[in-house]
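Example (one chain per record):
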Amino acid sequence: MSKTVFLFPGQASQYVGMGKDLYDASDKVRKLYQLASDEIGVDIAKLSFEGPAEELKRTRFTQPAILVHALSVLTILEDRVPAFDFACGHSLGEYAALAAVGSMTFEDSIKAVVKRAALMEDACQKVPGTMAAVMGLSSDVVDAICAKATDNDGVVIPANYNSKIQIVISGSKTSVVKAVELAKEEKAKRAMLLEVGGAFHSPLMESAKTGMEEYLKSVTISEPTKPIIANVTAKPAQSGDEIKKLLVEQITAPVRWAQTMSYLVENDVSTVYEIGPGKVLSGLAKREIRPDKMINLDTLDDISKL
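Predicted structure:
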């Protein structure tokens, strides 16, 4: 029997102007943006709609902006939310997925992501690092390259297994640069440094992990109403306590997105909704899942076509 998944995008899906039509159409959406703005201390609606792009790219602002956009789509849909069987989100997108399956309230997910984004940006400033994209090599080869490039001078690990042949690595700059050179020696199709604020999903984020663990102690996370596939395990998270533990681990652990897509294929998913800004996850899903049906819900026009 054909099944449906909701995918929620992560950092780098943002674009200036995102969400404005949703904001203009709904008082409930405007309240979500106001909540986020109050938590951050910056008008996140103005920044999302008008930029500048460089400021919107800052982790502290990008993460809440993308989350609020996704939650705004769900808010506009209200009781017209399509039936779905699974939910998952890429890195910060996991918080939108948790809201979609009732594990977190919209308010709690916004507050948590504002805290997460601030902690991660602070960690980037405390322990500078970088990331690189490697394409055309298997995960086993990339794992071995990262192990070889890790030494007393620094560490590098796979951060995002985005597809079977697209992996992002993360860590100390010297080690990431070394890993890029090793990847080229292994005849990678591409191996290049990324313009990012720091070494996300690596041990260099340890201070953010500690801060998030402390913060989540006071946050209620409920058992999901539908299976949510966790980034850390690429398997369904069963309970609120397990979800909380995995959200903490996620800060320094790889996003197992390719493995998540494999799990969805094995469980007969053939309809994919990407909810939020951009089409990054749709592009990955087309290659990894090859769904019969793909729907992007980004704008008011997208929603009106349902």
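Caption: The mean pLDDT is 96.
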